[in-house]
Amino acid sequence: MGNLIPAFLKPESASVQAAKVDMIFTGLTLISAGIVALVIGLVVTFAIRFRRGSRANRGELPSLVSSEFEIGWTAATLFVFLFIFWWATSIEIGAYSAPKDAMEVHVVAKQWMWKTQSASGAREINELHVPVGAPVRLILTSQDVIHSFYIPAFRLKRDALPYQQTETWFQATKTGSFHLLCTEFCGTDHSRMLGRVIVMEPQDYARWLSAQPERDGLAELGERLFTARGCSGCHDAGSKVHAPSLAGIWGQAVPLEGNRTATVDEAYLRDSILQPKRDVVVGYEPIMPSYEGLLTDGEIQSLVAYIRLGTDKLDLIQSLSLEPSQNICAPGQSSASPRSPAMVPGAPAQTPRP
Amino acid sequence: MSSGATADATTLANPRELPLELPASYLADGRTLLSWLATTDHKRIAILYAVVITFFFFVGGIAATLVRLELFTPQADLVGSDTYNKLFSLHGIVMVWFFLIPSIPTTMGNFLLPLMIGARDLAFPKLNLVSWYLNLGGGLLTLAAVLAGGIDTGWTFYVPYSTTFSNSFVTLAVLGVLVSGFSTIATGVNFIATVHYLRAPGMTWFRLPLFVWAMYTTSLIFVLATPVLAVTLTLVVAERSFGLPIFDPARGGDPILFQHLFWFYSHPAVYIMVLPAMGVISEVITCYARRRIFGYSFMVYALVAIAMIGFFTWGHHMFTSGMSPYAALVFSFLSFIVAVPSAIKVFNWTATLYRGQIGFESPMLYALGFLGLFTVGGLTGLFLASVPIDVHVQDTYFVVAHFHYIMVGASVSAYFAGLHFWWPKITGRMYPEAWARFAAILMFFGFNLTFFPQFIAGYLGMPRRYHVYPPEFQVWNVLSSAGAAVLAAAYLMPLGYLTWSVFFGSRAPNDPWNASGLEWRTTSPPPRQNFFGNPEVLAQPYNYHPESTPPIKDQPRVPSQGSLT
Amino acid sequence: MSEQRQSPARAIWLRSLVVWAILIALLGLSWLAAYGPFGGWTVAVNFGIAAAQATLVAVLFMRLNEASALVRLAAVCGLFWASILFALTLSDTFSRLANV
Amino acid sequence: MSAVGKLIREPWDELGLSESKAFALQRSGATFGIWVFIASEVLFFGAIFLLYAAMRIEHADAFAAAARETNIVYGTLNTAILLTSGLTASVASRAAEHDGLRRLTLWCLAATAALGLAFLVVKGLEYREDIEKHLVPGPRFALAQAPAQLFFGFYWLSTGVHAIHLSIGIGLVGRLIGKGLRDHEWLVGNAQVEIALLYWGFVDVVWIFLYPALYLAGRAG
Which residue of A has its CA nearest to B151? Predict the structure, then answer.
């Protein structure tokens, strides 16, 4: 049925959902065209035949044309409309929940850019690389106003709400580069909040992925700990406490008391956490308490991984860690109540807890 | 008075008898500015409204022209992004609240409702004047916001953009809309009480012209939907100006709640715009087809059903917003249901033409144009009611095209149909028919050229409210902008020839179209008291068939024309 | 004032005072109920009492009992449309919450 | 022109009816008009209460904690004041229909307006206390839970909107008193008395629902 519409009137169709939407769109267009042709045809016919002064019969209406007629076309339109509703809804329900094995991608919108992060760790701005044929589940949120994540070629759109999460999913069927647009008005550069979704063959995607900076999930955990255990209270850039910023210090040589220097590596960081008063950087007071016994080895590793990555690189994750109470659009963090599998997005993202 | 023709009480008096000892027309009833600004005459208030909404129509039109000019090319070349955002916001706010919503009800409704039911005035004439001042005040506040620097939220005022992030004059504009909302509620109360209490003897509910039914159902929406808008806007002001968090997501507020409240008003607001249009079209089509309306009672039920069910469907504006999927399906279902009565109306208008004596005067051309455009607009509504399609085209030019087909294609066409149809009654002058026909035809083609390409651009994925856009959409935008130029010319023409006719048009007889309604049974223009004597209604409306009884027991002798001096 | 003039005043006061006494009693009850051991039902009890008070005020103080059918219809219309607003909006809120 | 005749306004005076019939019809039309307006107001406050319901469902704990901070004594006192004003308003509205009860009508109108003012005074005292307790949403807000600020956003908004309505009511009743004092026959059977007092009754009803919403939540336990 999709072939009935000439190519230049059809947007590129590159996902499983797109084909279904196009089918019902075409069907509905045909039905509508039929109804429009019927109405306009009748109006034109009557207008010509019963124009003032023509010789057509103007007598009483035949007895058939009465309230039976009204009831007839009421029932007919109701039937047609309900049929369309059923058709559209069955497609919608069938496609609502993402497959269980879907690849997970977090999307954070802000004025006026898209930041994406896939479960494999790849982080991008205004771009999203995905393998063809694999279902991809998107978990969206926003850092400021409402945005809407729109990929026309996938017939996919979902608003990104501040402090809430929304979900949707797609499965690309074609490789190539596709528009990513913002469709909820979000301020000055709304129309420049554009991006690309690049669909690749799985092997190309694997190659692309391996070229990305390494991610093992430790750093993400470390970032949470960094906030949860109070490190950020002093070491954040905006903090009132006089403590060194840790952004970008990995591998640097830092000056210590007594004209010594130390290279920031795993051992130094570990010492600084457990015995902070030992090697204090010049210009800072030894005010940091020891975390001896308060952090496990694994947690220290995570913190080190986070600092190694750079504490300024990961605000993406921070923006995703919301209070559950503020989060009613989102699937919960844990202990989700049972849902109807037909209607609701798949199981929620289990975020590792410290 | 010596003419022999006056023996029959129901015929018109001889034109030469004009200086009868009868009241002057409402236009001649006082000539000072104060006699207009302090009037309680529904007809004069209608004129006051007409002046204000015509002004705002062209304000909104200029904004639209600039928007279309900017979109001629994909790049930004005429205005900056912030200016562009302010232009489309201005266009939306002004056109929705200061043109479309008051358009037919406050002008033709105000003028004709008492005339059509045989009343002397609305039930609360002072309140009617207060409504006009509120409407004007709201308009001036909004205009002040524009002159102060503009507002850039779009007409939807979505939070948290409008409350926290926008740096424009949101509060002022929102207050303007709020004040005009009170005006709308007052008008609604007035119309409802008038229809209930001031119908002439014999004017039963099922003898009311469909225009009156349309005004009545519109008023129901005025009264029951507008307060929710008032709350929504109050909350925006409270949050923006007084820091009272209601929707602030940082403190747990829920922006989707704002959308629920906003659309609880703004979806029925669409029916506020289109129900009066349906009323006008019913009057015009019957008159120029010389035919009783097909299925009168079904037409009434359809109006009531649209007004009722129209309240249940607002959620289809929010399918992609993160609303619960269960609620989305319920709203989708209800949206399909509300399309049924609209379809019935289209079929009934079409069937009214059958076996008629169809003439093609300019009001009828507008009305036939309405039929086509409303059908297209209504059917594309079904696309938007289907969740999967809506997910694709929501907030694209497809939606823009759809609602312009309803609001401009249908409502504005009907506005012009009604304006031309009742122009002789309102002003006592005839307009140049050839010009009027030319404008009607030009408007129809200009409209389709402007908005049909937007359906395609939208389906191809062009989002709305875009200042710059990907170049592959340019061809559709060029077509659309070209159409807008035609449309602008077509809208300017009535301004010209109707103004001309006020001064130079030939004098209008009382019933130039040989129409059947009660409003034609008095002079053109009518006197302050509307009628000569007390009208009494004897039959159904749309009495265009030779075999039926005369509908109205006529009054004493009516002068053949009102006094314009 | 004469006897005849007094009696309508007394009738007016008597009826209204009875209603007022019930209203004040309900107010006290509602206050107490707020501290009572009803658990989740406290909300229902409090708003139930409020609804009863509102009904009394609307019917007896605002004289819906004497009003024409048309006026009652207007009052019912307000409630009906408000209930639509509540039902459809809360259906969304609840089903979103249920998915958390 | 008779006393009744003076009160008939356009267009009710041109219906070709007798004076008393036209007056009754005008009154009935006015009563219907104000009820249509009240229906509109039901939607207005309905939307406000809907917000409350939705936000309370989403943040039950924070709302309970926040509602405990309101002053229940002031709240209950104000409810009692308004219920009593409802009594005087109702008596005034009925008494205004009797020729001989002008003094009673005037006294009851005065009592209604006075109780309305008393409500505003108590409300003012309560506002002062709330401000001292840092219950105004913002950076210095007293409670830790963020959604508690939503409750107080609602509190200030709803009580503010209600106070505006009540002030309009006091103005209307004050106008009736002024007109009634000047013109002895003006009050009798006048639709404006009934309209003002029906509006008053509605403002009463709004507060009846605000009371449990603002003051009674979260008190137990």
Answer: A187
